[in-house]
Amino acid sequence: MDQIIKSSEAFELFRYIRDFTTGRKERSSASFLDEPDVVVDKNEKSLRDSKSNSEGFNEPDKSANLITWEDVDISDHPKRWPTLLKLYVTTCVCLLTIATYMGASIITSGLDEIKDHMHVGNVAVMLGLSLFIVGYSVGPLFFSPLTEIPQIGRQKVYLITLAIYICLQIPTALCSGIGALLPLRFLAGFFGSPALATGGATITDMWDSKYAQYFVTSWSLCAFSGPALGPLFGAIMVVAKSWRWQFWFLMMLSAAVFILFFLFVPETSASNILYRKAQRLRKITNNPHLQTPDELQYSQMKISKLLMEIFLRPIILSIREPIVLSLNLYLGLVYSLMYLWFEAFPIVYMELYHFTLIESGLTYLGILIGTLLPTPFYFYYLHKVLIPKLTNNSGRIVPEEVLRVSFPAAFFFPVCLFWFGWTAQRSINCFSSLVSTLLYAAGSFLIFQTCYQYLASSYPKYIASVYAGNNLCRSLMAASFPLFARAMFKNTGPSYAPVGWGCTILGIITCIMFPIPFLLYKYGLKLRIRSNYATN
């Protein structure tokens, strides 16, 4: 099949959501020409002939009215798309992820100007960073389930939320008070969250499991790149124009990504594509009972069960499951340290080494380089170890096996914190402390990849809830760290090493949590056997 389902127009996006949420019936066949262009192949035509009934259906046979991919053209499935199209969509998702994550950290380069302009203190202005993080920790609880509903899919959620995200940058750039800035930053994080919540799912929609690991890892690199690039581009905007241009730049960057999505990125949710085919067949055959399996499942789901899956299950799993709880805290600490650098770097490189604003922004590139360093080794591990085991064991592995990769990375965290804290002195070349942040980034990247793979292997049935709970926990932790970081460094560090004792305190905490990957490797199986949710 040569023709791909065309992207919906803007009014079609709102119509689908309106019809689903209000329960409106399908429009008459007279308006069928307004539907998205979905090609019906020979299988669909035979299905139309076999399932059509001019008299209607008083007692429908649900099994006979189910539309599956066996009934339609399988070449329309995202996994059967041309490789170039899949690469293009993957690239667009990665660009969207970078643009969204840059939105969190880009404000850090203009904090001093914002403080002077709005006459507020450091904690108040740092809330502009923290509330953005809180926003994208809460957003996935709402948007991730929406993308799984067949009537909605992923593309509509991407486009609508991204359009709102772009519009929010305008009042943010124009606002004059902290009371307006803070809620706008929260809303920007909230509506920017679909890229962070469903980007990996979009990639796995298209790629077979053999290749999905590589592209999900590449997408994760973009998630690490965004926070590292934000301060640099923010500094350039502040020096060239003013702090307001940080948000104008963010608006233009996001608008460019929006155009790529709107014009050229098709829907990747197989359930949504199949739903649209069934929708057309209902009108052709005059059979209103034709449904897809996912459509039938959601139509029979009670609201209470849906709310349970969206809000309660992530919290229940995060509290009751020792594996989930321990990794939430561990990954939360690792993730929080990244946002701690946004307070530590200005103290060290601007106040101690007297870097300019742009030079200080360049120091964050060490985090980006650090995430790139272990990537070839991780790809080698995927190619030689993980993927062959998945292929030879019908997609199953012992979950604890993947934790081995995290063992050397676990050593990096306390070492890098002590290293950074006590080499950040005027008498020691700044290159030494920069190397420590590079190794931190390399270790954190490996930790995230292996721990997420471990969670996916341990809780395959509830992985969406596990990831939602993890995202909420680590993001809330990360949002809190910038608020107390400067006070901690200023009140504890000696003048010759201003971040020394602060990093020592954090280093001790990481030493306490250091054994978590090793303990899970040894006792993970026993914990999974005792669990009501994990696979054993």
Automatic annotation (TrEMBL):
It comes from the Eukaryota. GO terms for cellular component: plasma membrane. It comes from Schizosaccharomyces osmophilus. Residues 89-536 form the Major facilitator superfamily (MFS) profile domain. This is Caffeine resistance protein. It is a multi-pass membrane protein. The chain crosses the membrane at residues 87-111, 123-145, 157-180, 186-207, 219-239, 245-265, 323-342, 362-381, 402-422, 434-455, 467-487, 499-521. Its main location: membrane. GO terms for biological process: spermidine transmembrane transport; spermine transmembrane transport; xenobiotic detoxification by transmembrane export across the plasma membrane. It is found in: Membrane.
